[in-house]
Amino acid sequence: MDASEKPLYKQIEDYVLDQIDKGIYTEGEPIPTEVEFCKLFNTSRATVNKALNILAYNGVIYRTAGKGTFVRMYSMDKQMKKLMGFTEQMKMLNVDSSTEIIGYSRVKADRIPKVKELFKLGNDDFIHKIERVRYVEHDPIAVECIHISPKVISNLQVEDIGGSLYKFIEDTIGVKIGSSNFVISAMNATDEIKSMFPCEVNVPLLKYEQETFLMNGVVFEYNEIYYLSNKYQYKGSNFR
Amino acid sequence: MDASEKPLYKQIEDYVLDQIDKGIYTEGEPIPTEVEFCKLFNTSRATVNKALNILAYNGVIYRTAGKGTFVRMYSMDKQMKKLMGFTEQMKMLNVDSSTEIIGYSRVKADRIPKVKELFKLGNDDFIHKIERVRYVEHDPIAVECIHISPKVISNLQVEDIGGSLYKFIEDTIGVKIGSSNFVISAMNATDEIKSMFPCEVNVPLLKYEQETFLMNGVVFEYNEIYYLSNKYQYKGSNFR
DNA sequence: AAGTGGTCTAGACCACTCG
DNA sequence: GAGTGGTCTAGACCACTTA
């Protein structure tokens, strides 16, 4: 495990994913057994077992005791799940995306009681509030209202938030983002939301609310994103 | 591992979840170390490590080498992710739910080309098509259009599909369900959908499309569910 | 009966954090 | 330096599937 940075079980994961990408391991067909991988990587069964079980948990392969390990079928999405921001998501899809900031303000906590309670703020705290428009191929897709806790970031510059907010936080502030909860609903645009869009809004909106936590469990941001329903859909997968 | 049916690492998972539920392990606070769990369950570190890492992957706890293991903060939802049908979901939420079948037919594959292609059917195959209304506390929440592949189930009785479809498949047919992909979008009700609802539809709909796979990767069903947006929201979580 | 993955043991060394 | 989780080894027994 010395020569290479990555742990061995991750290298095995990557190897299997690569073989699937190359079409060497194909859909529905068995891949080598644990013992065979042991010889291939000169390692123990526990390490191979860990690698293959992670891939199985993520839906890449499926395993049956007594039979073997097989490549799963895909159709909509191949990627394993990841917590990603919009900019990162769009880059992965190889689409040209951009963001326009249409407002930045510091709002007294009282004015947004829901967020005040979520962040556990006092009356004298100010919430960072950012309003942005998201474009894909120069076409407006969504408007977004971001609330950031002053407990995590006290000073925020407008230029900090032009691109991926998550990347900024992790790189510049050096705090690791842990998890997020979200709620998706459908709604008609209110007049306030209509005024934020740089175009006519004549379709329903897909509303995506999200609260994001740092690794230590502290709430760091609360977002509301309003997507034009004819231009964005939410995709996901579930596994047993 | 003999006396109890469950593997030891699952028992440890359940124990930790139970301690969190009871408030004995609390948010942000450390839980016992791996070595302490080893003594508590009279087991080896590998087993404890597996249990705690599964909980960490599912966002229940977070771990830092050199520091320890801590309980994460929750706010919207506590449950770990699971692939669940509507009936199972509602039971977990302790809500009274029911389903009314408003139509069952076998439709020639040509009539629904999208589904024909997904199931890889020939021209002479017939797709099982079921239309249901979902109620929560006797209040209509959604209408649903289910398509089941004749390759997986050739004969389907109406009484088979009154409750949880997944439970029926797994129990009666004896085939294990593996994974699903889904797409969520917002839309206005079409006249066809309006006619399926036993009530007025004057809000946008949250559309949930889903394709479900068996363990071996075969597509087994394709669903379209139309939720009244004022009565249902989709909730989820993401983790790094 | 032979082979598969599921589970488990009893060790080990490492990088990291903290006092 | 003591303690933590991260990773790994070299064995083991089991239930299950397939021939």
Pick out its properties:
240 residues, DNA-binding, alpha+beta, six-stranded antiparallel β-sheet, 32% strand, two-stranded antiparallel sheet, homodimer
**Biggest sheet details of chain A:** 6 strands, antiparallel
Mean pLDDT of chain A: 82
Q: Determine the fraction of residues in helical runs of chain A and give it as a percent range.
A: 25-40%
Count, helices of chain A: 7
Major interchain interface with per-chain residue totals: A-B, 53 and 53 residues
Number of strands of chain A: 9
Describe the structure.
Two copies of one chain form a homodimer. The first copy, chain A, is an alpha+beta fold and 240 residues long. Helices cover 27% and strands 32% of the residues of chain A. Chain A contains seven helices and nine strands. The first copy, chain A, has a six-stranded antiparallel beta sheet with strand order 3-4-5-8-7-6. A two-stranded antiparallel ribbon of chain A has the order 1-2. In chain A, strand 7 (205-214) and strand 8 (219-228) form a beta hairpin. In chain A, helix 1 packs across helix 3 (45-57). The model of chain A is unreliable at 75-83 (pLDDT under 50). Chains A and B meet through strand 6, strand 7 and strand 9 of A and strand 6, strand 7 and strand 9 of B. Strand 6 (177-187) of chain A pairs antiparallel with strand 9 of chain B. Chain A binds a DNA duplex (19 and 19 nucleotides) through helix 3.
